[in-house]
Amino acid sequence: MLQGVETMRGIQLPVFSLAFIAALFAGCETSREVQNFDKPTAEMIGLVFQEVKLDNASLRFYFEIDNPYPAPLPLVSLRYSLTSGGNTFLTATALDSVAVQPNRTEVVSLPDEVIYSRLLKSLNSRPGSTIPYKAILGLFADAPNLGLIELSSEKEGWLVLPNAPEIKAEGRIHRPLDVIFIPTPQDVVDKMLELAEVKKGDLVYDLGCGDGRILVTAAKRYGCRAVGYDLDPDRVKESRENVEKNEVGHLVRIEQKDIFTLDLSEADVITLYLLPSLNVRLIPQLEKLKPGSRIVSHNFDMEGVKPDKIVKLTSSKDQAEHKIYLWTTPLKREQEILVPFLNNSFGDYDQ
To answer: Considering the entire predicted model, what is its pTM?
Structure first.
């Protein structure tokens, strides 16, 4: 039975109501106490890669955090951008069971798992390189009685991009991240095939075929034959499932092979989404294509070879601008373009 307390008006209030009111006033007092303290601060003092696996990498951020409160300061999430050479990688991660003790300044390490290929593509960088970076970070903490607060920090430095672990396939050593998988938006796929003027009698090769979407689109839309090559067994499996799902197995074949060992001479159309240095490595193979073959590349050019056309497209899928490069064989080397110009110039001069 509840015990009552007599008030001035003769109405009885339950004891727990008074206790609640007392706790409420105490909470308000604590809130005023916390508000009287300085705001916590965070300074990023380091950033390193801890581990790189086949598909992802572990980043570790080091922060010096000052907690002036008489209570623990839980850290709940980290949002950050890494910028290098005008290119930016942006992401966020939730933090679990990380807190700075009361009235302490502590150095804490905060981990994040990222898709390494996405980071490399965003920063337009290669494994094994060292790049300058600028980091802008928002560290979110759950301050006592104040709720979520953001602690901002910036830092510039140099970041070592580690190599991926090596794997052995077909008697050779490979680094899986040499050929990274970032899906091409479907409207970019459509434009690539349109620019290459694919027709029914063509044979299309996709080098680094990923999930097979280019091959499936070529087969379904143009009724042509298509072959996809990828070294990653997961991508090969995914591509084959996509081919089966779209019922184009009579036109499309997927093979697990190293693209740098292929004879490409039978292809009419080559599609690429590789880093620029890999496009250059393919030039000796591409030069063996028959005259009139077309090569289309998503976002990356081929240094030393003049494209016939460059098309820009803002994708409705990611609202980003994409470039598509087209070359027609025989390839036009930059020095071959300069020679006639120089010859004509000297000829005019002699006259």
So the answer is: 0.50
